[in-house]
């Protein structure tokens, strides 16, 4: 069998290929296509699983940072026993361990994301720490909070910026990664 191949401008290449050779070429092309699709699928699966793992990590870290505010209410509503005080103190220690863990884990992903998380944790602690100290100085009480109780808010701009950094870090657009670097260039003390 004689096969003629045409290219642009009328050039013609003649090749003598047998039916077996044509079948082998088609089979090789099909196998190469299948291998390329398998490699692309494995690569895409890896990228999306890493992204999901990061999203879960950031969500858990965000929750842990906001838990500091909840600790204020635990101190205010505690029973006035040594056992209860010890349990609350242990929860503070566990929470601080988790915050340190997430800071290290996030820092292994990105130094700039670690800085963003540290800003969130600092804002959470600075908004609640004076009130927590004040609550420890007073006897605890059960029930609802008093109308005179202060309910501190974590700066919404800091929370918004951390969540924006998370969205930018999870993005597939490299210029969004640069925004994280710009926003978190300075280290937080």
Please explain how this structure is put together.
The chain has five helices and two strands; from the N terminus they run ββααααα. It has helices at 19-76, 82-109, 111-137, 156-170, 174-183, and strands at residues 2-6, 12-16. Strands 1-2 form a two-stranded antiparallel sheet. The chain is mainly alpha-helical. The chain has a domain at 54-183. α3 (111-137) runs antiparallel to α4. A hairpin with a 5-residue loop joins β1 and β2.
Describe the SSE topology:
Blueprint: E1 2-6, E2 12-16, H1 19-76, H2 82-109, H3 111-137, H4 156-170, H5 174-183
* Low-pLDDT segments: none
Number of strands: 2
> Using only CA atoms, what is the Rg?
30 Å
- Determine the strand fraction and express it as a percent band: 5-15%
Instruction: Note the main sheet.
Output: 2 strands, antiparallel
Helix content, binned percent = over 70%
């Amino acid at each position: 069998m004689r096969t003629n191949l045409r290219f642009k401008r009328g050039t013609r290449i003649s090749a003598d290929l047998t039916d077996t050779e044509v079948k082998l070429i088609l089979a090789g092309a099909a196998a190469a296509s299948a291998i390329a699709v398998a490699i692309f699928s494995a690569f895409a699966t890896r990228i999306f699983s890493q992204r999901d793992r990061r999203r879960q990590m950031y969500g858990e870290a965000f929750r842990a940072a906001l838990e500091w505010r909840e600790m204020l209410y635990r101190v205010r509503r505690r029973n006035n026993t040594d056992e209860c005080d010890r349990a609350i103190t242990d929860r503070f220690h566990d929470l601080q361990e988790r915050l340190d863990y997430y800071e290290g884990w996030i820092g292994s992903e990105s130094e700039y994301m670690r800085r963003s998380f540290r800003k969130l944790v600092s804002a959470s602690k600075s908004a609640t720490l004076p009130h927590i100290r004040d609550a420890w100085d007073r006897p605890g009480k059960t029930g609802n909070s008093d109308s005179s109780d202060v309910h501190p808010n974590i700066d919404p701009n800091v929370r918004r910026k951390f969540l924006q950094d998370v969205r930018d870090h999870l993005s597939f657009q490299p210029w969004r990664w640069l925004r994280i670097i710009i926003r978190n260039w300075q280290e937080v003390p």
